[in-house]
Amino acid sequence: MDAVGAVVDLLLVAMTLSAAVAAVVSRDVFRGVVFFIVFGALMALIWLRLSAPNVALAEAAVGAGLTGVLMLETLGRIQRASDVEPVRESRPRPVVLAGAALAVAGLSALAALSVLLVERAPQGLAGLVAQQEHPIENPVTAVLLDFRGYDTLLEVGVLLLAVIATMGLYPRDHPSPTATAPLTRGPERGLLLGWFVRLLFPVGVLVSGYLWWQGAAAPGGAFQAGTVLASVLVLMLVTGILGLPSPRRAATRLALAAGLSAFLAAALLGLGLLGVPLAYPPALAKALILAVEAVLTLSIAACLAALVIGVPPTPPRHAADDGS
Amino acid sequence: MVIDVLSGALLVAGCFFFLAGTVGLLRFPDVYCRLHALTKADNLGLQLVVLGLALQADSLYAAAKLLVIWLLALLASATIAHLVSRLALREGYRPWTR
Question: How far apart are CA A167 and CA A157, in angstroms?
Fold first, then answer.
């Protein structure tokens, strides 16, 4: 490891740790959120230094981008709303604090030890994947969508479950409009933001499509493309350019569930053609993977946007019948 | 060799603008001055860094991609600076005068 690389790594580690500590320790919540966004951006740089550009792309979009939007919008809403109870600061007992600090320190030490003591495989999985001569050259996409397709299938299922759970949340007593309304701001008074977001939409679609297509041979893929598209969708939903989709409409449900359905269809196709689920016939492998990834991109974008904005929940039936 | 030296000089110049922008962010008296410093960093600093990297790029295509990134960052920083300063004005922050 050369000297410049070592200096860069040390600087990155120091900056990331300070950003993380500042995010947790700040009394001002806004400062904490800003430092959390900075932490996400620095984590993306760390992933790059670890030669994981696919993860860095996803981390930059989700950790620094979407999570930042969610927290800033929520914070602004809490500060502006008058019907939200302020959170009372609770100080846990010193014994509890000491126990938690000890547990965290112990776990961190364990993690550091395991990283230092385990022998590093020189290539990771990339060498094994290269031996298989898969039509998809990017080893990460090949592993995610083909060799370990089950894991990705279940991950997409978990994402859909999270969206369904979010849609089902509704306060039982005295629902405040602030808590249940989705995170939209409505159109700005001026012209600039609307113009800018309208300009970003085709650019975002282009970048997303580029990442999807490049995922076969270079860093990219369905998740990265989906997160970029989700960011553009979130911008359009927050500024009111795109109307909020209601979960009762079939189009919304189709957009959310299409990715998982396409992946399941590909799995069943493998079962029918080759007797093993998620096995792709070699001649069709690249086309099938790209097609599934395309639907996954749209679906991941819809799910992430729904998670950040909060699809408007429908009140449970008995509340409506109360006549209240 | 010449390209390496030129590229290095452009990168150092870009880093100087980023440093100036950071110092401005920390030291300037009010939000409008700080935005002024930050947009210089985004604009000139990023442009010089991108030019320095484009000289080292493998192909014209990769250099063009870097330039597109710079254009998008330029648009975003200009829009955000405008929005932040408009909000500050609306909230009542008076510009600093001596």
Answer: 15
Do residues A277 and A264 lie in contact, with contact meaning Cβ atoms separated by under 8 Å?
no
- Tell me whether A199 touches chain B (CB under 8 Å): yes
- Contact present, B83 and B20 (Cβ < 8 Å): no
Q: Cβ B83–A193 below 8 Å, yes or no?
A: yes
Q: What is the pLDDT of residues A80-130, one digit of tens each?
A: 776 666 666 667 788 888 899 899 999 999 998 988 888 776 666 777 777
Q: What are phi and psi of A178, to 5 degrees?
A: -65, -40
Task: Measure A310 CA to nearest chain B CA, in Å.
Answer: 24
The ipTM (two decimal places) reads 0.86
- Cβ atoms within 10 A of the Cβ of A290, count? 17
pTM: 0.84
Interface touch A199/B75, C-beta < 8 Å? yes
Whether the CB-CB separation of A269 and A287 falls below 8 Å is answered with no
Q: How many CB pairs under 8 A join A and B?
A: 11
Grouping H, G, I as helix, E, B as strand and the rest as coil, residue A241 is: coil
Q: Which residues does A250 contact at the CB level (< 8 Å), separation at least 6?
A: none
Question: B83 to chain A, minimum CA–CA distance in Å?
Answer: 8
* CA torsion, ordered A304, A181, A311, A72, to nearest 10 deg: 0
Task: Please give the distance of CA B9 from its chain centroid, rounded to a whole number.
Answer: 17
Query: What DSSP character marks residue A120?
Result: P
